[in-house]
Write a structure and sequence with these properties.
Elements: E1 21-26, H1 46-63, E2 66-71, H2 80-83, H3 92-95, E3 103-104, H4 114-127, E4 137-140, E5 147-149, E6 154-158, E7 165-172, E8 182-184, H5 187-190, H6 194-199, E9 207-213, H7 219-231, E10 237-241, E11 247-253, E12 256-261, E13 267-274, H8 286-299, E14 310-317, H9 320-327, H10 337-352, E15 358-362, H11 379-392, H12 396-399, E16 405-410, E17 421-424, H13 425-431, E18 438-445, H14 446-449, H15 452-458, H16 460-463, H17 465-469, H18 480-483, H19 498-525, E19 539-541, E20 557-559, E21 568-573, H20 579-582, E22 586-592, H21 596-605, E23 616-617, H22 624-635
Parallel strand pairs: 1-2, 2-3, 7-9, 9-10, 10-12, 16-22, 19-20
Antiparallel strand pairs: 1-13, 4-5, 4-8, 6-7, 11-12, 13-14, 15-17, 16-21, 18-22, 18-23
Helix pairs in contact: 1-9, 1-10, 11-22, 13-22
Bound molecules: ligand L45E5XJ5.
């Protein structure tokens, strides 16, 4: 872990359900390879993950089973470790390949900018040669100008210990926001390709592994499932998904399941399969058979039972308490040389990038989804009511031209919470890493401009067909977790009352203790394996419900309540002397560039003749990252080395 990472908190744990074939899965790491430095539950780093995977691989080998490591994309954008360097990714590209990854694919974030997809072509694909799969992604090679697959379309291999014949593919959802140096083939077209049609007819396959930067409950995965099933009515299929930033497990049928493993290095997904055929063993030598027999005899590994197919899953909280426990190690035996070295390299990168440099002190937590909007603790309220009016309202058109402006931001532009205490250079990138700048459409009739926000938030008629016809997916406005449709949100938004909050906090501890006791009792009654230590206090965290039930998380947590947020929020930017502007019948409509298409479409829908070409940069086209960082420095800044 990083030197400033908080120590993990001991918690009751569920064991890993090892099988004949096991997987570790990361997705949507978004540059959080240094781990979370303000959240003990997720404070392990990429170096620790390397050590962990190495112990898990050794255990698999010792038990004669197999372990595959999978990553399903969006490794870039979202944390200072990636975003603060010039060029971006200078330090993450180096440390990433120190992990042995068996199967990986591309996320949409690798493709927003031409240079990041060229990084995949020139750095990541060669570094993971043989593991990287691009089933529906091509790139224009900058040397030849020729369009070519970013990597192999699929991969077939036999696992070393069990001899399981795996056919793996790696997809990206039907993403349309990529730069023009890449081509994403829609999944419905990719499945018509000869290579795909041949692959799904292969009879010498024991398991299809379909990885993808694709939500588990999307039409893309559904189509892949149906098409594979049309040719392989009972060959097991394991999907690994991503993109929607949630923990999720989907059961398609009794031989087809999928795992999604959260976001931001919070979660290491674990999946296992038992009862698979081992076609690859037929070809093995008598020596291999002897070794295999020896393994079975000696280790009596329950997972080698051949009775029926079974799948399992666990979402591991990425902290050292969990990682030590599951790998059967301790602080002394856990770190491998490579893991320790990677943690040290991340620490020096963070120092070189001044990521711990404090910009100010946050007075309390501000939550993206964990507080209702609007409210005192809502990150969106803070942004719309404090940050944007102060920073964007100073634009020349507001002050000199005495003009009112309406500034609209999509809630998806915010990616993470603000914690009470130090707000560092890193925090600004974590909250909003995007480089898209603010722009404005000048002189829009006020009555029309005021109707844009409601349309973007509730505009069924706008956001359904017209937006989709232009390739504008309305789900992209809100945070991806919410777009997944799987975020369990509070039924009603309650007004915040401070005393109530205090009382709630007092009651929480007794509830926590009560539940821990109940969990102990319940498990004992059901004759289940005891949790590692159910007397331990529960901390707030993931309490996932998926198709397999509510026992997926490795760590027992106190439930967190999530609130739904609107697609967009609006700030009114008023001039210092609003007399003239107050009644003006035109205003400027300001927005961050990412939502330009939606804003222009909404105005056109309202009868205003505008085009994106009419827009001008606002506040010098600053990014939201810069705007937030400046506001924090000006408003939460503290002198010298004083503690927050
Ligand atoms: N310039 C950008 C780019 C993206 N967003 C938001 O991020 C969402 C996509 O994030 P994933 O991690 O799910 O790929 C997208 O839906 C937008 O909400 C943005 O605001 N500005």
């Amino acid at each position: 872990a990083q030197p400033s990472a908080p120590s993990p908190i001991a918690a009751p744990l569920r064991e890993l359900p090892w099988g004949q074939l096991n997987f570790l899965h990361t997705t949507d790491t978004h540059g959080w390879h240094g781990g979370h430095l303000q959240e003990a539950s997720y404070s392990a780093d990429w170096g620790d993950y390397i050590s962990f995977a190495s112990h898990m691989r050794a255990k698999a080998d010792a038990d004669g089973v197999d372990l595959l490591v999978v990553d399903t994309g969006d490794r870039v954008e979202g944390n200072g470790l990636y975003d603060a360097s010039d060029p971006k990714g200078k330090y993450t590209f180096d440390v990433l390949p120190e992990q042995h990854i068996d199967l990986m694919c591309t996320g949409n974030h690798e493709l927003y900018k031409a240079n990041s997809s060229f990084n995949e072509l020139n750095v990541t694909v060669p570094a993971f040669n043989g593991s990287y799969i691009a089933s529906n992604l091509d790139i224009y090679n900058p040397d030849t100008g020729v369009m070519e697959p970013l990597a192999q379309r699929y991969k077939k291999f036999t696992t070393p210990n069990q001899g399981i014949r795996v056919l793996a593919m790696g997809f990206l959802y039907d993403f349309t926001g990529n730069a023009n140096n890449t081509v994403v083939q829609k999944v419905k077209d990719a499945i018509k390709e000869d290579w795909f049609q041949t692959a799904i007819r292969d009879r010498d396959v024991d398991l299809f592994v379909i990885i993808g930067h694709v939500g588990l409950r999307t039409q893309e995965f559904q189509l892949l499932y149906k098409t594979i099933r049309s040719q392989q009515w009972d060959t097991p299929i394991h999907f690994f998904g991503g993109h929607t930033h949630i923990r999720d497990y989907r059961i398609w049928d009794n031989k087809a399941v999928g795992l999604e493993s959260g976001r931001y290095m919070e979660t290491i997904g674990f999946a296992s399969v038992d009862g698979l055929n081992r076609g690859g063993k037929k070809m093995s030598s008598s020596h291999d058979d002897d070794v295999d027999h020896h393994h079975r005899e000696l280790r009596n590994v329950a997972t080698l039972r051949r009775a029926g197919l079974s799948f399992n899953r666990r979402y591991i909280d990425n902290n050292l308490f969990s990682l030590y426990h599951h790998s059967g190690t301790d602080a002394h035996s856990f770190p491998t040389d490579v893991g320790r070295n990677v943690s040290a390299r991340i620490a020096s990168a963070r120092a070189a990038l001044h990521l711990d440099a404090r910009r100010g002190c946050a007075p309390h937590n501000f939550w993206l989804n964990r507080a209702p909007y609007p409210s005192r603790d809502s990150l969106l309220s803070w942004l719309a009511e404090a940050v944007l009016p102060a920073q964007l309202g100073a634009d020349g058109r507001v002050t000199a031209a005495n003009r009112t402006a309406l500034a609209i931001t999509n809630s998806g532009a915010l990616r993470f919470d603000v914690f009470k205490g130090a707000f560092t250079r890193d925090s600004a990138f974590a909250i909003s890493p995007f480089t898209s700048g603010f722009r404005a459409l000048p002189d829009v009739p006020r009555d029309k401009a005021e109707r844009v926000l409601p349309l973007l938030n509730h505009g069924g008629p706008l956001l359904d067909r017209p937006a989709r016809a232009l390739g504008l997916d309305p789900r992209l406005l809100a945070p991806p977790e919410q777009g997944s449709g799987r975020l369990e949100v509070a039924a009603e938004v309650v007004a915040e009352v401070d005393e109530e909050e205090e009382e709630e906090q007092q009651q929480q501890q007794s509830r926590v203790e009560g539940r821990a006791a109940a969990a102990r009792g319940g498990r004992a009654e059901r004759g289940q394996e005891p949790l590692a230590d159910a007397r331990l206090k529960l901390t707030p965290g993931y309490t996932t419900k998926d198709d397999a039930g509510d026992d997926g998380d490795d760590t027992l947590h106190e439930k967190i309540t999530f609130y739904s947020v609107p697609n967009c929020v609006q700030s009114v930017l008023r001039p210092a002397s609003p007399a003239a502007a107050g009644d003006a019948d035109v205003v400027d409509v300001v927005y961050n560039e990412f939502i330009e298409g939606y804003v222009v479409l909404a105005l056109k829908y309202l009868g205003v003749q505008v085009e994106a070409a009419d827009a001008v940069p606002w506040a010098d086209g600053k990014s939201l990252t810069a705007v937030i960082a400046e506001w924090v420095g000006e408003n939460w800044g503290v002198e010298g080395e004083e503690e927050c």
